[in-house]
Amino acid sequence: MDAIQALRAIAADPKAYARKWRQKTGGKVVGTLCSYAPEELILAGSALAYRIVGGSGGISRADAHLQAYSCSLVRGALEDALDGQLDFLDGAVFPHTCDSIQRLSDIWRMNAKTGFHLDVVLPVKLDTASARQYMTTVMANARSELEALLDRPISDAGLRQAIDIYNGIRTTMQRLYTLRAERPEAISGSDVHTIVRASMVMDRRDFLDNLTRVVDRLGPSSDNPAARRIFLSGGVCNLPDVYSTIASAGGSVVGDDLCTGSRGLTGTIDTDKDPVAAIAERYARRAVCPAKHSGITSRGDELVRLARAHRADGVIFIFLKFCDPHAFDYPYLKSMLDDAGIPSLLVELEEQAISLGQLQTRCEAFMEML
């Protein structure tokens, strides 16, 4: 089985992979609910970080605990936990990001049978010296708590090894993203989608090996000049394969700032500093999500910069319905794109009721407009 096929198999059934990994290694599996979860600490504790990105199907049990207007990420994740589909977890780490994740943490602690529970209360405002100091303190406390919960020491040497692995992943992913921007036909959007999904659940050492082999083997390609260059923005964690839909509509995804994408998979950690402080610094200076603050127009400025850097013909926003942080940001982001002369399209998806046919029609109309 070649590297990309191995990644496809894992992306297709991440729960089965996590169960097999746990049985084979005897290690612990820790669920995470956001890309702000300090995965380096989990890896240094010899555990597997498993990103929970939504549910596996219909929702019934979760509705007894959450309002129907909660986003489908929160409702679907809780449904899987209550239904026993996450019984392979030894614990869960909840970084405090949006209000929905914070409330889910309380409900999860009282009702889900997924082992230990750890809240990591990160700062919201990230552009001050006090916020950076607070972030370092939070990471140091999380390290101590994880040591007790995992019953494993998290040494400085272990942290440095974990940092090297994650730096390798993020550097190689940046190579992949750069290559995709320069030559979109070198790798299909579906394969990039597969790689990202596997990156959130696979043993990170094995993932880095497979990722490196995939990127190293990418050769010259013949671009399709007729394809419109599309940049994706937003946050749908359990993202369907919209890349194939966009491609069949005449577009080619050349970049993204998705939370399950470049936001979490780029940006290296300084190896010359104290490891905890260096990890905290990376999480403080990485590209922010709508639940964090680093400036009044920082997200809009960055989106316009990225769209121009990727020579995007247009931007497609992909949001979950009822995702308030993204919905609140959207008007000013669209306005800044309009001012920069970059067309955009907003697509809202509901995880349990995705209509790819409707998405196809809207994408085709957007490509014609471009």
Automatic annotation (TrEMBL):
<keyword id="KW-0411">Iron-sulfur</keyword>
<comment type="similarity">
    <text>Belongs to the FldB/FldC dehydratase alpha/beta subunit family.</text>
</comment>
<dbReference type="GO" id="GO:0051536">
    <property type="term" value="F:iron-sulfur cluster binding"/>
</dbReference>
<keyword id="KW-0479">Metal-binding</keyword>
<dbReference type="GO" id="GO:0046872">
    <property type="term" value="F:metal ion binding"/>
</dbReference>
<keyword id="KW-0408">Iron</keyword>
<dbReference type="Pfam" id="PF06050">
    <property type="entry name" value="HGD-D"/>
</dbReference>
<protein>
    <submittedName>
        <fullName>R-phenyllactate dehydratase small subunit</fullName>
    </submittedName>
</protein>
<dbReference type="InterPro" id="IPR010327">
    <property type="entry name" value="FldB/FldC_alpha/beta"/>
</dbReference>
